[in-house]
Amino acid sequence: MTPSPPPVAERCRLLLEQWRAELALTARERSGLAPELQALEGQLQALERRLLRVAVFGRVGVGKSSLLNALLGEATFATDVAHGCTRRQQRARWPVAIPGLAAVELVDTPGIDEIAARARQRLAARVALGSDLVLLVLDGDLTTPEAEALELLLASGKPLLLVLNRIDCWPEAEHDALLASIRRRLPASARHLELLAVASAPRRPELLADGRVRSVAGAPRIEPLRQQLTALLEGSGELLLGLNALRAADRFQQSLQRWRLRQGRAAAQGLIGRFAALKATGVAANPLLLLDLAGGLALDTALVLQLCQLYGLPMGGAGARALLVRLSAQNALLGGAQLGIQLVLGGIRQLLVLAAPLSGGLSLAPAAPVALAQAALAVHTTRLTGRLAAAELLRGAGLGARRPASLLRRLARQDGRARAWLEHWPAPGEAARTGLRGGPATDTRSNRLASPDAATLQGLLP
After folding, report:
1. C-alpha–C-alpha distance, residues 196 and 163, integer Å
2. What's the pLDDT tens digit per position in 399-412?
3. 47 contacts: CB under 8 Å, gap ≥ 6
4. Going by C-beta distance under 8 Å and a sequence separation of 6 or more, which residues neighbour residue 45?
5. Rounded to an integer, what distance in angstroms lies between the CA atom of residue 244 and that of residue 231?
6. Most buried of the four, 47, 144, 400, 417, by CB within 10 Å?
């Protein structure tokens, strides 16, 4: 009888432990990437401990804390009539047993509408990074900050539940119209989400003996959320843990790759300069055209190999030559134009050398300027080769073979739930490369998960 495979979370943990051991970080890299490394270690520890985190997210005063209190069955999180009671993240254990999970933590977060847009984006990124599932809480029609936060969370590949709280504050006759209005305002990427209407802290009128009416607290009405959340965690809790750990590892892998590229920029400049000098010397001193071309190709291949080694990107000689072919196809100067100019200059110089016995050596005089022109061309093309190779490595060879991204692709192919959650992650420019979605990229937006934009790339090139 074939043994059943280990659970998703355990498989992810074992594979990520192997990947983590193979990173071989230097002391300088540990120091330079300390915050990113700390976030990664925290997520890997959560995976090992089977600790899943559910965060609430939304505007100030929508009842995030009271919603968590209703789930907990006690007043653990502070609530107040004054909006904005939560100033920092707070957390508590949810006393519900979920198969495959050791514990579930409920995380309260500050409101998003009392901070600037850039700070709101940073808060959304932190919540997305530090939680495995997000409850986006509304208390009325969808606002612009809520729509922006919703898109950010979905773009980060974060699974979420959309919750309409305080439904008791609306007349029952208006419930359907309110839900329909919210659905119309949802971004296209969120139209598939179910909208759960709840009342975490409802109040009802009570008639006093003296004829006055006062408002008293009623029992929470959150069963749709409780049932949906429990069912989701029971069916996919381990998968949620594994996905978030893989995303954290992938994010760290990219940060490490960019850090190495930045650190190698100055060294790459010196390396390219030395190869340019070698090629120029060889071209100027060698009278044979075929040896010029062969020597130039050999030096370019060696340069690409040295750049790969400098940036920590393994590549064999065949891979380096294939990269040079791609570069030649992309750049006319490295392709036909370079070959044509070298052929013309080399042919002229060879004829001048062969004619030297007939001209008494006079034909050698114009051969020197031709050799210098060849040397100058060799310097220029070598520098261009180095820059294009670095750009190609940054765009593809370095980031395309990440193990965490490969595991995410495999999960997306094998599991329909993972594929649905990863549909909007990463950004389209990255998705075209990683293969999570088919078709060419049509969106060139840049974020931490996408391939670098032109300005970033220029800063990394030697």
Report:
1. 5
2. 444 578 888 888 88
3. 9, 12, 13, 16, 241, 242, 244, 245
4. none
5. 19
6. 47
pLDDT of residue 101: 93
SS3 letters across the chain? CCCCCCCHHHHHHHHHHHHHHHCCCCHHHHHHCHHHHHHHHHHHHHHHHCEEEEEEEECCCCCHHHHHHHHHCCCCCCCCCCCCCCCCCEEEECCCCCCCCCEEEEEECCCCCCCCHHHHHHHHHHHHHHCCEEEEEECCCCCHHHHHHHHHHHHCCCCEEEEECCHHHCCHHHHHHHHHHHHHHCCHHHCCCCEEECECCCEEEEECCCCCEEEEECCCECHHHHHHHHHHHHHHHHHHHHHHHHHHHHHHHHHHHHHHHHHCHHHHHHHHHHHHHHHHHHHHHCCCHHHHHHHHHHHHHHHHHHHHHHHCCCCCHHHHHHHHHHHHHHCCCCCHHHHHHHHHHHHHHHHHHHCHHHHCCCCHHHHHHHHHHHHHHHHHHHHHHHHHHHHHHHHHHCCCCCHHHHHHHHHHHHCHHHHHHCCCCCCHHHHHHHCCCCCCCCCCCCCCCCCCCHHHHHHHCC
Is residue 224 within 8 A of residue 196, CB to CB? The reply is: yes
Residue 81 has pLDDT above 60, yes or no: no
- C-alpha to C-alpha distance for 420 and 97, rounded to whole angstroms: 26
Backbone phi, psi, residue 103, to 5°: -165, 155
Q: Which residues contact 150 (CB under 8 A, 6 or more apart)?
A: 136, 142, 160, 162, 186, 187, 190
Distant-in-sequence, close-in-space partners of 299: CB < 8 Å, separation ≥ 6? 275, 278, 279, 282, 382
Q: Note the pTM of the prediction, 2 decimals.
A: 0.69
Compute CA 267 distance to the chain's CA centroid, rounded to the nearest angstrom.
Answer: 27
Question: CB within 8 A of 93, min separation 6: which ones?
Answer: 103, 104, 105, 106
